[in-house]
Amino acid sequence: MLKVDFHVHTTSSDGVLSPTEVVQRAHKNNVKYLAITDHDTIAGLNEAIEESIKYDITLIPGIELSTQHNNESIHILGFFKDDNFKNEELIKELTKIKSHRVIRAKNIIHKLKEEFNIEISFEKIFKDANDTIARPHIAREIINCGYPYTIEEVFNKFIGNGCKAYVPTLKLSTNDGLKLLKRFNALVFLAHPKLIFNSNIDDFLAMNFDGLESIYYQNTNEENYKFLKLANKNNLLISCGSDFHGSLKTDTRHGDIGSMELPYEYLSKLLSALNV
Q: d(Cα 107, Cα 240) in Å, to the nearest integer?
């Protein structure tokens, strides 16, 4: 079975390894097809593409876009079929989202102090964030400041959806996010459907998605099977993802690069749709 991973983060968003280091780790793990999908940014893609050439890894330029549906954060994965990820118009849209993430981080930090008496420095987080600020930056800073929690506990108790210090991302609707990525020649997949709680999956099947991240690190075998069946029934492409962020010791929610397996019949359809 060919090793692949279509959901990986770098320091350009909330991962701990640089794009170069992520590609090197993929090579070490024998991954042949790799998509870098940082949150709301394409900043690390050129560096990753350059590095991938040294190792004969096929690097698929991607993004994980944060959208809103039914008062819930819905993540969608875009895989670009060409160089359209460099389009100025797309970069302008992503810059708007990035600016909102700064405001969001400040609001979360304020709520942490107000609700839980947890004090951390925005300046320190801003300095450590390479390009785009996301909640794992805040979670890691809480731990760095000596508070006795794991990343998972910080999310579950304080900053996860529905928690008192949670602040949503920019209100880009899932439909609008999907249209935005398609405008720049991306295949668009619904990310980790397991993590959607307020909406029925049928809401998304009615949208114009190309595929479903059916095989995902947090899924049970039964859930992988359920989402594979759903994708096949609705004639959707199938991807797999570890959602690698790099902090494997402190972060049990995400896997290592290449830890999920994608059967060849699904991989060949996906690569063909990407013109790879």
A: 33
Residue 240 β-bridge partners: 215
CATH H-level, domain 3-86+173-273: superfamily: Metal-dependent hydrolases (3.20.20.140)
DSSP letter assigned to residue 19: H
pTM over 0.85: yes
Residue 22: closest CA among 31, 10, 12? 10
Provide the CA 253 distance to its chain's centre, in angstroms: 12
Q: Which two structure tokens, joined as six digits, stand for 113?
A: 């102090």
User: Residue 62 corresponds to which tokens in the numbers above?
Assistant: 């991607």
| CATH 3.20.20.140 domain extents, the chain | 3-86+173-273
Element (H, E) at 139: helix 135-144
Sign of CA dihedral 259, 65, 224, 71: positive
CA-CA distance, 55 to 23, in Å (whole number)? 8
CATH architecture of 95-159: Orthogonal Bundle (1.10)
Distance CA 266, CA 231 (A): 11
Q: How many angstroms separate the CA atoms of 265 and 261, rounded? A: 12
Mean pLDDT by 10 residues, the chain (276 residues): 93 92 97 96 96 96 95 94 96 89 91 93 84 84 91 91 86 93 97 94 94 97 97 98 85 88 96 95
